[in-house]
Amino acid sequence: AGSGAGADMRTEISTAAAFVTRLLRAAGGVGEEQLRCFCECLQEAMREHYKHHWFPLVPSKGSGYRCIRINHKMDPLIGKAAGMIGLSHERLFQLLPSELTLWVDPFEVSYRIGEDGSICVLYESPQPGGKAAKQLESRTSCQEEWRIGRSSPSKSYNMMTVSS
To answer: Which of 12, 92, 95, 149 is the most buried (most CB within 10 A)?
Structure first.
């Protein structure tokens, strides 16, 4: 039972990092070796960042701090890992969804693509001594959504990219 908090985060962090890595792989143009390195660097950055912000007894505490976000700004953790393999922020914006939110909490990792997409759970485990994990009835729709990506029309999408 190693270093307390650090050991507990492993599954959640590797799930989140693998998800971002999958998005990059799906976009194409990044080599496998680079992807492997990106995934490791991202996990390392997350471990470092979450070290004192991980509360298994109060899983939602610190959730905002651990939230990974791309929203016309690149998340610093993703940016840092990408920098290690020579990917610029510009390139990342081409490869990743322009709106991505990833919540990395004790016992649950979930994400949303787009501002009003549905929230999809990537990983969930029952909390020790807590209530049993809820059924993931939305899993299939999420898989679909992930595949379709950005092709779903969204009412708030009337080209808000004028901000430059």
So the answer is: 12
